[in-house]
Specification:
- The complex is a heterodimer.
- Chain A is of the alpha+beta class.
- In chain A, 44% of the residues lie in helices and 23% in strands.
- In chain A, the strands form seven sheets. In chain A, strands 10-14-15-13-12-11 form a six-stranded mixed sheet. In chain A, strands 27-19-20-30-29-28 form a six-stranded mixed sheet. Chain A has a six-stranded mixed sheet with strand order 21-25-26-24-23-22.
- The longest helix of chain A has 33 residues, at 641-673.
- Chain A is elongated and about 125 Å long.
- By secondary structure, chain B is of the alpha+beta class.
- Chain B has helices at residues 3-17, 75-78, 128-133, 150-159, and strands at 20-28, 31-36, 40-44, 59-65, 68-74, 90-96, 99-105, 107-115, 119-120, 134-140, 143-148.
- Chain B has a six-stranded mixed sheet with strand order 8-1-2-11-10-9. A five-stranded mixed sheet of chain B has the order 3-6-7-5-4.
- The chains are: A alpha+beta, B alpha+beta.
- Chain A binds chain B through residues 277, 280, 517, 519, 567-569, 612, 615-618, 620-621, 623-624, 627, 629, 633-637, and chain B through 48, 50-56, 59, 62-64, 67, 69, 71, 97, 99, 101, 154, 157-158, 162, 164.
């Protein structure tokens, strides 16, 4: 096939694409003359070129379509029918072009008379709708002409008066004598040679051509018509120009006219490959220079490195195209769908100028189309349904694209009915993809994922649009092939949103080099979220849920797997030991919405590598997406994050469900024992065994210069925030350090502070304070297992009075486990934090409130308590009032209520009794409180019994 | 090498000495094999071979040969022979379907020029393992040289399931 034809096919295809988009726009804005002119001109050009090149079928259809559009230009009403018909003809032209290309330049045999007939009828209708004579005969003759190029085009230039057409005789060649208005071949040749290739000239020619067309409407100035012919039907150079004017979307769309050149894709590919090799070689050099401390190569190499980086960026930019190109066909598709499905649909496109790599663009065109079709077909409801649901009748499909951190994110959203989770669940069970029990346990998000399973479709029937169930898995596959991910978010009734994340470049990738099982591997950085180092005593711990190791990272549980196990190269004997709970490097990866941790033996550095595809023999290994040569010359495999995610999937679901079970158990256990984990401060004082105190009680951790510690009145003091703070020692006979700094825990309340002298502050941990062994020793509440060590929980109650006598008294403890729920109301957080553990230690399930208001809320909510302990001195509503209102309520008439107060005078006790309190305890009389509670409950039990 | 080049070589051989083909001989498991010289690109010592987890057992790994990533095929494993106890193995670089492979063998022998006419089809008692990859044999003094058929050698690896145990 010769170059001319090749050019023609390329350019005509581009023009047809533009015509598509413009037609859809035109349909929505039938009064927009610019769009119409645009379309008209494009079709006219196509027709002319076809005629000139001797492609009668194409010419015929284009001609008829053009005629119809001419009617619109003259003011005929634009009907949907007419536009559909023109679109159909455009499709037909595209088809023929395709066959033409395949047949290497031979126009395929075929008969278009039906289509042409329809077009003509439409034109006639349009005519009738306007006014105007019967042009039908004229139109009928015209398409049958074979090589009528100049005459044809000329005839078209005159719209109403088809006089010349009437005179046309079939099967004329260019050997006939020149007709009026035509130019000789020589003149044409001259015109060709004179026309230039540049786009600017095309632009200039365009208005000229338009003028010419307008002029030609009057019984034409022939030379002008000829000029139109010459310019629009010209050979290679002008063809390029015409193609330029049609194909230059920017100029035809009224955009900026750029200096641009057509470059073969192969050339760019070659450039890209060369740049990649250059990057590799640069890496090698860098590696060598790295090993030599002082080298004169360093500076030039740095320069080389910069230049290479820029070159890399530059070449990549050449391959970047706006994603609008992939979206080009979609308005037309949506329009057609809208008609076919009888649902009004609007397509919104945001970020069409976001650029991405050409290769990537090609690969996402189809997936995007499929998703849009899906949204239109399955996502959007019928207009009646939408009205019933209170939504606007017109459904909206939104395409949005933007850059984010090395990726391009494309969203396909619809405001339809969302994914019907129940339907999907049913289908899943029906297909045997999961059992009912499993499906029940799944979250909505997990159920959504099944959409991507092969052969999956909940469509009740298969429409021509979709529903065949071969879609979404192929879509996901295609996207994953280019290293991207697709995620789905959906809210029933509101709509669904597909989110595609694609890396911006394919060839050169930033990776993290890790080691596992004795070998090194490269993990693409794009999928790495963070690196976590696990060591004994670090805050990140590897835990086990039923033998599956997981990492607790900021309250999320991540399933873990060792890379060497995944790859089958684990050299140890016991698979369980692959992940050492005390030591490891974990690469936290995210693929789509799956987050998980991959344990590796070592982490080296990051390196920009050039991805070399795997040898065909090894291509089917899912774990690897390619291999590369590192700077040091060694070949390493590149891990495919999707492969790992797939292997993890089985791990994850079981670990997560197990975890859910565990959490249920936990909750139950907590309900029974009434304890949850709290923050504890671990420290040492006087003995190597650790001690702990609830962190919430501690005001500050301080270190004082020993020189600041003064002695007065037989006590050690330190000046603290403008007041004297007495120091208290954990063990009798302890004393402070003689030099350096002395750490201490400061406890404050209502302006008074106490410093508890400790040897060393160890850590702050979260754990359950489950005092298992009570203690008779003063100062210790008991021993609890904190972070797997037996830890003494100190009794602040013992120490505080040592600072200020009226702060505390001695304690006793009651370890009897009762599962009584106690509501504790106190506005002072200090006392809440102080007394809650005491109550808990006594075995009660304590709920705290900051005041009566909150207490009422809880009670109204239906929470049941066995007893209420309330402070008296509270702002807004004091304890007496609180109790009185409680007693007024029949529900709480009999519930035991205890008063806690710092004022224990006979008068206040009496007041309390009147208010309805069952007992009145001094705030600091903790044993008294426990005893009172005990009394109240045994009394109750006695009553119950 | 392209078919054209191959043919040209043959023609050259023919002109050289009436239908003589040059073979690079290698020894695998005590048996002598011959590779038409036109197919052999390299002879090298396989160094720094990176193993490929989860690949077929015959795939010894991949290595970097002058900037190209070459897939190393361990011929002993391919032919179901026990591995070499000691001693260094050698590799012969070939190209197959535009990709580079390295056949790891015991030793490389001489280059033999043999008349094409004396190539015989596989004898019926040829060890089954050699027969799999053989494109014929040449009878030499005292031993048999099996002509290695690269297509059969590598082609089979693509169709067989690739997952290692």
């Amino acid at each position: 096939m010769d170059d001319l034809l090749r050019e023609f096919i390329t350019e005509t295809n581009e023009s047809l694409d533009v015509v598509d988009v413009e037609l859809v726009k035109f349909e929505q804005e039938p009064n927009n003359a610019t769009i119409l002119d645009n379309i008209f001109r494009l079709v006219h050009t196509i027709k002319g070129t076809c005629g000139f090149l001797g492609l009668p079928r194409l010419e015929g259809i284009a001609h008829a379509a053009e005629t119809l559009m001419g009617k619109f230009r003259d003011g005929a009403p634009v009907t949907q029918e007419a536009v559909s018909l023109i679109l159909t003809s455009i499709d037909q032209i595209k088809d023929i072009l395709g066959e033409l290309e395949a047949a290497e330049g031979e126009e395929p045999e075929g008969d278009d008379s039906e289509l042409i007939g329809q077009l003509e009828k439409m034109s006639a209708k349009a005519d009738a709708a306007m006014q105007g004579g019967a042009e039908e005969e004229a139109e009928a003759e015209a398409p049958e002409a074979v090589e009528e190029a100049p005459a044809e085009a000329e005839a078209e230039a005159e719209t109403e008066a088809e006089a010349a057409a009437n005179d046309d005789q079939p099967e004329q060649t260019l050997e006939r004598p020149l007709r009026p208005g035509e130019v000789s071949l020589d003149e044409l040749e001259r015109a060709f040679r004179e026309t230039e290739i540049e786009v600017e000239v095309a632009e200039a020619a365009v208005p000229e051509a338009e003028e010419a067309l307008d002029e030609a409407e009057e019984p034409a100035p022939a030379p002008a018509a000829a000029k139109v012919e010459a310019k629009s039907e010209a050979k290679a150079p002008a063809g390029k120009k015409a193609g330029g004017e049609a194909g230059e979307k920017k100029s035809s769309g009224g955009g900026v006219s750029n200096q641009s050149i057509r470059v073969a894709v192969d050339t760019l590919e070659h450039l890209m490959t060369m740049v990649s090799e250059l990057v590799l070689t640069r890496n090698q050099l860098l590696e060598i220079v790295r090993r030599h401390e002082d080298s004169e190569f360093k500076v030039p190499l740095q320069r080389l490195s910069n230049v290479t980086a820029e070159l890399q960026e530059g070449v990549m930019a050449t391959r970047m195209q706006p994603i609008g190109n992939a979206w080009q066909k979609l308005p037309r598709i949506v329009r057609d769908l809208s008609q076919e499905l009888e649902k009004p649909i609007e397509l919104e496109m945001i970020g069409a100028d976001t650029e991405l790599d050409r290769q990537v663009l090609e690969m996402i065109k189809d997936p995007l189309t499929h998703m849009v079709r899906n949204s239109a077909d399955h996502g959007l409801e019928r207009p009646e349904e939408r009205r019933a649901a209170g939504k606007p009748e017109k459904g909206i499909i939104t395409l949005a694209a933007y850059h984010e951190g090395g990726h391009i994110i494309i969203e396909v959203r619809d405001d339809g009915k969302g994914i019907d989770v129940d339907k999907v669940k049913a289908k899943v069970v029906e297909r045997g993809l999961a059992s009912e029990a499993e499906v029940d346990k799944m979250t909505d998000a997990q159920v959504h994922k099944f959409i991507f399973a092969a052969g999956f479709s909940t469509a009740a029937k298969v429409t021509s649009v979709s529903g065949r169930g071969v879609g979404m898995d192929v879509v996901r596959n295609n996207i994953e092939l280019i290293g991207g991910t697709v995620d789905l978010r959906s809210t029933q009734g509101k709509g669904s949103s597909f989110i595609i994340k694609i890396p911006l470049t394919l060839a050169i990738v930033s990776t993290l080099i890790v080691e596992a099982g004795g070998d090194r591997f490269a993990i693409p950085q794009l999928s790495v979220v963070e690196l976590v180092r696990v060591q004994t005593n670090s805050e990140h711990r590897i835990e086990r849920i039923k033998d599956t190791p997981v990492l607790r990272l900021r309250n999320k549980l991540l399933p873990l797997v060792h890379l060497s196990q995944l790859l089958g190269i684990y050299e140890g004997e016991n698979a369980d030991e692959a992940i050492d709970a005390d030591n490891g490097f974990i690469v936290v990866m995210q693929v789509g919405s799956q987050t998980f941790g991959v344990v590796v033996d070592g982490v080296f550095h990051t390196e920009e590598i050039v991805v070399k595809p795997m040898s065909t023999m090894l291509r089917n290994l899912g774990m690897f997406s390619g291999n590369t040569i590192l700077g040091d010359g060694s070949v390493i495999m590149i891990i495919d994050p999707n492969g790992i995610a797939g292997a993890m999937a089985s791990h994850a679901s079981s670990a997560v469900t197990e975890n859910q079970e565990d959490e249920q158990e936990d909750l139950q256990r907590r309900a029974i024992s009434g304890q949850s984990s709290i923050s504890l401060l671990l420290f040492r004082a006087g003995a190597p065994e650790p001690k702990a105190v609830p962190l919430s009680l501690v005001t500050r951790l301080e270190e004082f210069e020993v020189s600041k510690i003064e002695r007065s009145n037989g006590r050690d003091l330190v000046q603290y925030r403008g007041a004297l703070m007495p120091l208290v020692y954990v063990n009798d006979g302890d004393s402070h350090k003689t030099e350096g700094t002395q750490p201490m825990l400061v406890f404050s309340d209502a302006g008074r502070s106490m410093g508890l002298v400790v040897d060393e502050i160890v850590d702050i941990v979260e754990d359950r304070m489950n005092i298992e062994v009570g203690s008779e020793r003063p100062g210790i509440l008991g021993s609890a297992v904190v972070k797997e060590r037996a830890t003494e929980i100190i009794d602040l109650g013992y120490y505080l009075p040592q600072a200020f006598e009226d702060w505390f008294m001695r304690k006793e403890m009651d370890i009897e486990a009762l599962t009584k729920k106690v509501l504790f109301v106190d506005d002072s957080s200090f006392f809440r934090n102080m007394l809650t553990p005491v109550l808990k230690a006594a075995g009660y399930d304590v709920t705290t409130c900051v005041g009566p208001q909150q207490a009422f809320e809880l009670l109204e909510n239906g929470d049941k308590f066995h007893a209420i302990v309330s402070d008296i001195e509270m702002p807004e509503i004091n304890g007496f009032e609180f109790c009185e209102s409680l007693r007024r309520d029949p529900r709480f008439r009999n519930i035991p209520i205890l008063a806690l107060s710092s004022m224990v005078t006979p008068a206040s006790i009496e007041r309390g009794r009147q208010a309805g309190f069952d007992d009145y305890v001094a705030k600091f009389d903790r044993p008294g409180l426990i005893a009172a509670l005990k009394d109240v409950f045994s009394g109750e039990m006695g009553a119950a019994a | 090498m392209s078919v054209l080049e191959h043919k040209l070589n043959e023609v050259a051989d023919q002109k050289a000495g009436s239908d003589m083909i040059q073979y690079v001989t290698v020894v695998i498991g005590g048996q002598l094999f011959g590779l038409p010289i036109s197919q052999v690109h390299d002879v090298f010592v396989p160094e720094s071979v990176t193993r490929v987890p989860m690949s077929a057992p015959e795939v010894q790994g991949v290595l970097n040969l002058r900037g190209r990533i070459v897939t190393a095929i361990n011929m002993r494993r391919r032919l179901h022979l026990p591995p070499l106890k000691e001693g260094q193995m050698m590799a012969v670089g070939i190209e197959y379907k535009q990709e580079s492979y390295g056949l790891v063998i015991d030793t490389v022998g001489e280059v033999l020029t043999l008349p094409a006419a004396s190539a015989e089809p596989n004898p019926s008692n040829l060890d089954r393992r050699w027969a799999e990859i053989s494109g014929g044999v040449h009878r030499l003094d005292g031993q048999l040289m099996v002509i290695l058929d690269v297509d059969r050698l590598l082609g089979a690896m693509f169709t067989e399931p690739m997952v290692a145990a």
